[in-house]
């Protein structure tokens, strides 16, 4: 079965290593996954003052999540948590109350850092947020990618064979996980 995966890259940096990781994951993913990026860079800072009149950019953002079968988060770690822009985006998607776009939406979390723990603390933080948002998360495999110079080329070629196989397996597991979740939970109307 084919599933539509919307992916969010936590970094807005032009040279983002997490964007390189996302490109690699797309290249290594099984046939049954198709991808579209869900950008959050144009969202204003959320306030509940917007709840009575959600701006079109936020409606489109929520619509892109709703239209996805699953969400993949590829994020750096900033100060031992997720970047503020990503948290802001999740807050937008979760509101107005009762219209949380993440509820029952399968997700997975991955990230890379030059630091040796490879975004582990940010991922724990993100997992708490997604739990509250009622997103069923892939628990295993976990993936904490320690980025070293040249590990992934700009166009997403992984240069270390063992890492390449690890990431290929991660995406195969994600495909299987989405299938399991959609078997027990009805697909959400777009
Ligand atoms: C970082 N970086 C970082 N790395 C890490 O492993 N743990 C951390 O807590 C932080 N904190 C942090 C805060 C801020 C504000 C910045 C800008 C950076 C380093 C970070 O991993 C590195 O800049 C990566 O290149 C970020 O990923 P992208 O943006 O290149 O995808």
What small molecules does this complex bind? ligand FNR
Q: What's the SSE pattern?
A: EHEHEHEHEH
Strand content: 5-15%
Integer average pLDDT: 97
Fraction of residues in H or I helices = 25-40%
Structural class determined from secondary elements: alpha/beta
Poorly predicted spans: none
Report the principal-axis shape.
Answer: globular
Work out the helix count: 5
Q: Multimeric state of these chains?
A: single chain
Number of strands: 5
Question: Mind explaining what this structure looks like?
Answer:
This protein has 190 residues and is an alpha/beta fold. Helix 1 crosses helix 5. The chain starts with a strand and ends in a 6-residue tail after the last helix. Strand 3, helix 3 and strand 4 form a beta-alpha-beta unit. The longest helix is centred in the last third of the chain and has 24 residues. It has a 5-stranded parallel sheet with strand order 2-1-3-4-5. It is built from 5 helices and 5 strands.
